[in-house]
């Protein structure tokens, strides 16, 4: 029995209808190097979605291997309640310096970071004498994790519907998705319109609302909806004016993905940095090597818990909070950014890949070509999506299989095709990714039933 079949019989895989793998075998990976995943038969697959958006610098990066090996020989794990250690202190100091925020609280995954931020926000308001501020708000299409607490602010019905009786739903406010532009609007105009609607809602509901949570610049799981940075500036001002915490979820978009170290930094002005009340980090925090998440907050929030009374403290914990190995991985990521001019190199890589992807930008079956930093996305035209509905998994399933056959790991989200590759791709890898993606799209469309031949040419976002 091969590894894929053994896995099907013993492992419950995430976000998966397991029956699917009776007909479609799992891909068994034996090892990885750089941007490549290598299966048991020696087949090479370009990890074009960075292993669920986590891997920044490729697999097995020599500096990461060296740093983790040294840390393992020194200190593997110690509880963080009542104790501390060098890696967690240094990481907290460096993240604070990079963000302008204060203390860092650690967990192991993005959903936990979301729940920590929400709990901390409501508790801080209660400690400050406003116990009625217990409600949360998020954006349409927002994604902040799949644990029960995180699902309250995740607006993706597929993930939430089965657990509706368990969930204390947050308010869902409009998304500034630039694809929603009305006649005569550009992306900035959409941002201004939606920000005004959110300001009006906050004005009416601030007395019961603890926090607004959102993903800055890109709502990834919500179809890679992108918005103008002006939205962040306006929402920050609204939250300050109405005394509602602003939680920025940079779990997917942090650490260089959008072209800056953190996405929200693109909303800074020459006169003022933009700072949230809470910043959630994970995924790229360790370069995709070990599980770690962090929530950074302001000194004002921290001060609301600083008291002799234990019940006024933040009584939340995880067994592996601040694990030294994971913290060392995160420190290595920060070292690479500081020492290797990663952002400038990414800009060059992105320009080269964007040029190679030109046939996709104007493909008649695709709509809304968009890119920010090292993230690309397109939407399949509705008539083509309908013509592929007979395929197992629809367009997303058919494209995934076609890409896999061409040495690419790509997983569209519904009708949205996206690329989020590791940093540092070479010329051959860029060509493989661009040519393979186009070939996979053409092969997928070839299996469509009666597509509408009048598909209009693609129009880029305003």
């Amino acid at each position: 029995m091969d590894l894929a079949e053994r896995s099907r019989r013993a492992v419950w895989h995430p976000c998966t209808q397991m029956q699917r793998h009776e007909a479609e075998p799992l891909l068994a990976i034996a090892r990885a190097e750089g941007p490549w995943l290598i299966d048991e038969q020696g087949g090479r697959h370009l990890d074009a979605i960075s292993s669920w958006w986590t891997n920044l610098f490729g697999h097995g990066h020599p500096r990461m291997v060296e740093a983790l090996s040294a840390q393992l020989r020194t200190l593997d794990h110690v509880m963080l309640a009542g104790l501390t250690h060098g890696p967690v202190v240094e990481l907290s100091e460096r993240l604070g310096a990079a963000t302008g925020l204060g203390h860092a609280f650690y967990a192991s995954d993005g959903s936990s970071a979301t729940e920590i931020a929400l709990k901390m926000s409501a508790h801080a308001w209660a400690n400050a004498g406003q116990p009625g501020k217990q409600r949360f708000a998020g954006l349409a299409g927002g994604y902040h994790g799949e644990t029960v607490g995180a699902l309250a602010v995740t607006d993706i019905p597929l993930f939430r519907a089965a657990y509706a009786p368990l969930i204390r739903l947050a308010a869902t406010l409009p998304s500034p998705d630039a694809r929603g532009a009305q006649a005569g609007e550009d992306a900035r105009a959409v941002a201004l319109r939606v920000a005004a609607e959110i300001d009006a809602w906050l004005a009416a509901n601030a007395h019961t609302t603890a926090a607004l949570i959102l993903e800055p610049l890109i709502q990834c799981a919500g179809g890679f909806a992108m918005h103008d940075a002006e939205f962040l500036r306006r929402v920050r001002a609204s939250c300050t004016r109405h005394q509602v915490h602003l939680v920025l979820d940079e779990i997917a978009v942090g650490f260089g993905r959008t072209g800056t170290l953190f996405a929200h930094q693109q909303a800074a002005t020459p006169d003022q940095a933009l700072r949230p009340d809470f910043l959630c980090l994970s995924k790229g925090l360790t370069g995709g090597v070990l599980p770690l998440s962090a929530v950074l907050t302001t000194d004002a929030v921290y001060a609301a818990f600083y008291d002799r009374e234990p019940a006024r403290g933040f009584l939340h914990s995880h067994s592996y909070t601040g694990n030294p190995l994971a913290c060392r991985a995160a420190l290595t990521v920060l070292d690479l950014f500081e020492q290797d001019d990663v952002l400038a190199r990414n800009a060059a890589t992105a320009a080269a890949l964007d040029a190679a992807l030109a046939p996709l930008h104007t493909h008649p079956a695709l709509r809304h070509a968009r890119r920010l930093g090292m993230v690309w996305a397109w939407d399949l035209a509705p008539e083509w999506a309908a013509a592929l509905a007979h395929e197992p998994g629809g367009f997303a399933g058919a494209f995934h299989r076609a890409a896999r056959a061409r040495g690419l790991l790509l997983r569209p989200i519904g009708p949205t095709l996206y690329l989020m590759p590791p940093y540092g791709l070479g010329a051959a890898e860029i060509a493989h990714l661009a040519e393979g993606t186009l070939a996979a799209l053409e092969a997928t469309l070839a299996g469509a039933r009666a597509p509408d031949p009048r598909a209009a040419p693609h129009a880029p976002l305003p």
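Residues 3-60+341-447 form a domain with the Aspartate Aminotransferase, domain 1 fold (CATH 3.90.1150.10). The first helix runs from residue 3 to 10.
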